[in-house]
Write a structure and sequence with these properties.
This protein is an alpha/beta fold and 331 residues long. The protein has helices at 19-28, 41-51, 82-86, 111-117, 134-142, 157-185, 195-207, 239-251, 256-263, 321-330; strands spanning 6-7, 11-15, 35-38, 64-66, 76-78, 97-103, 124-129, 148-151, 210-216, 221-226, 231-237, 267-269, 290-292, 294-297, 301-309. The strands form four sheets. The protein has a six-stranded antiparallel β-sheet. It has a five-stranded parallel β-sheet with strand order 3-2-6-7-8, sandwiched between helices.
Length: 331
């Protein structure tokens, strides 16, 4: 299963002509599935169009192309990898619409018509139907207008809805990662396309209560935040990069204990404040800059370790998802 190169909590948009049903549904949904409700279809379509337009917050990632003097087919691609983790510095990232839950039977437009009007948006779409609407839902699914449909009459319909929202939010970010994942994997980020390493990351997300993550550039790895915005960096090394650490340490007359640990792959080192490699100034404190190495055997050997980040270590503070939810409650 693919690993999104970034993922953060996002917005679920609920569209139903019954205001009382919307209030009940919003109350019953897991608060972590932050939602915005509309009982008027035109208002919903207009609002979603504004989120997709120029001047609104967008976490889209952009590559640049240097075609001169070559033809387009021979152009070089340049991508600033730091764009990825800088998404976490935007508070409004949590207001990115990722999943629409649309009722079918509505007076202005039915749910299929709403989804057709919004088919150009990257949002995933769930049609919430009555029993009599199932054939309509199947047809809409086959036409690619919706991604799921759930019958309101189903037993445990709310549980199914929550599970599908979570799954589709992940698919939303996987789709946004597809165009860049292969390019990153060709360089120092092979771990983003490795199924074995993706399984390691998913386990870490669950274990540490991580709600958002971003591929990080220096050192290569994944920046992670929990619900309260506490940050950790998952540093990922390969055999080649471990060799580089050892060679630089040798050239800088590192202590024998550090050289042995690097040679035997016992540690992952991150010497902060420069290029991440050892320098003579770390001679007496090198043990403060390493963590025990864990090994993932995938398409190649990946050595990894988690490094906690203190407040202020990143270039900008990241607003937490907890703060975002608290602000919404007060609004």
């Amino acid at each position: 299963m693919s690993l999104p190169i970034y993922q953060h909590p996002s917005l679920t948009v609920l569209i139903d002509d019954s205001d009382s049903f919307l209030k009940s549904l919003s109350f019953q949904l897991d608060p972590a599935l932050a939602s915005k409700s509309f009982h008027d279809t035109r208002s919903a379509i207009d609002w979603l169009g504004q989120q997709d337009g120029e001047g609104q917050y967008s976490d889209a990632l952009h590559a640049s192309y240097d075609t001169y003097p070559n033809a387009h087919e021979q152009c070089n691609v340049a991508f600033d990898i730091d764009q990825i983790h800088r998404i976490s510095f935007h508070r409004q990232r949590f207001a990115t619409p990722s999943v629409l839950v649309v009722d079918y039977s509505m007076p202005q437009m039915n749910g299929v018509q709403v989804c057709e009007a919004l088919r150009h948006l990257p949002c995933k779409k769930i049609l919430f139907t009555g029993v009599a609407d199932e054939k309509v839902a199947v047809d809409a699914f086959n036409r690619g207008l919706i991604d799921r449909y759930i019958k309101k009459s189903d037993e445990a319909a709310l549980d199914k809805l929550e599970a599908e929202i979570v799954a589709l939010q992940r698919e939303f970010f996987v789709a946004r990662s597809d165009s860049l994942r292969d390019m990153l994997a060709l360089h120092n980020y092979a771990f983003v396309s490795d199924p074995a390493f993706a399984a390691v990351v998913r386990a870490l997300l669950r274990e540490h209560g991580i709600v958002e993550h971003y591929v990080y550039s220096n050192p290569p790895g994944i920046l992670m935040y929990d619900h309260e915005g506490n940050a950790q960096l998952l540093v990922v090394e390969t055999e080649a990069s471990m060799d580089s650490h050892f060679e630089v340490a040798c050239d800088n007359d590192a202590p024998d204990s550090l050289l042995t640990a690097l040679r035997e792959r016992c540690i992952v080192a991150w010497f902060r404040g420069g290029d991440g490699l050892y320098a003579k100034s770390f001679a007496s404190s090198w043990h403060k800059h390493v963590q025990p190495a864990r090994l993932c055997r995938g398409s190649q050997n990946f050595y990894w370790a988690l490094f906690p980040l203190a407040p202020g270590e990143l270039t900008e503070p990241a607003a937490s998802f907890a703060d975002f939810l608290r602000t919404r409650e007060l609004a």
